[in-house]
Amino acid sequence: MAKQSFIASLSLESRLAHYVTQWDQRQQRSRYYNPFALGIYLERAERVATEVSNGERLSIALERNFNDRLLAFLQKQFKPEELTRSYLAVI
C-alpha cells in the first residue's frame, strides 16, 4: 500500500517512466525483446508529460504516443478520473 501512495505522489513524467520501465522489464522475458525499446518508451513518456502540461487530456496524449498492449497497460495504471482531468497543477 505504501508503494502505491509513493508512486501516486510522483510527477506525471516520473510515474510514466516508472510504468514503462515495469513494462520493459516484463518484456525482457520475451523471445522478441527489443533492447532499444526502453529509450523510445521514455522519450514518448516525456512527450506525453509535455502534451499534458500544455493542456491535453492524459487519455488523448497516451493514445497519441503509445499503442496496443503498452497503451492498455498504461491506461490500467491510472484511475479513470486521472485519464480525463487536466494535470496542469500536478506537473
Structural descriptors:
globular, mainly alpha, 91 residues
How many separate helices?
6
> How many domains?
1
Helix content bin:
55-70%
**Main sheet overview:** none
H and E string? HHHHHH
Question: How many β-strand stretches?
Answer: 0
SSE topology:
Layout: H1 2-8, H2 12-27, H3 37-53, H4 58-65, H5 68-77, H6 80-84
Helix pairs in contact: 2-3, 2-5, 3-4
Tell me about this structure.
The protein is mainly α and 91 residues long. It has one domain (2-84). Helix content is 69%, strand content 0%. It has six helices and no strands. Helix 2 crosses helix 5 (68-77). The protein is globular. 15% of the residues are buried. The mean pLDDT is 88.
Briefly say what this structure is.
This protein has one domain. The chain is built from six helices and no strands.
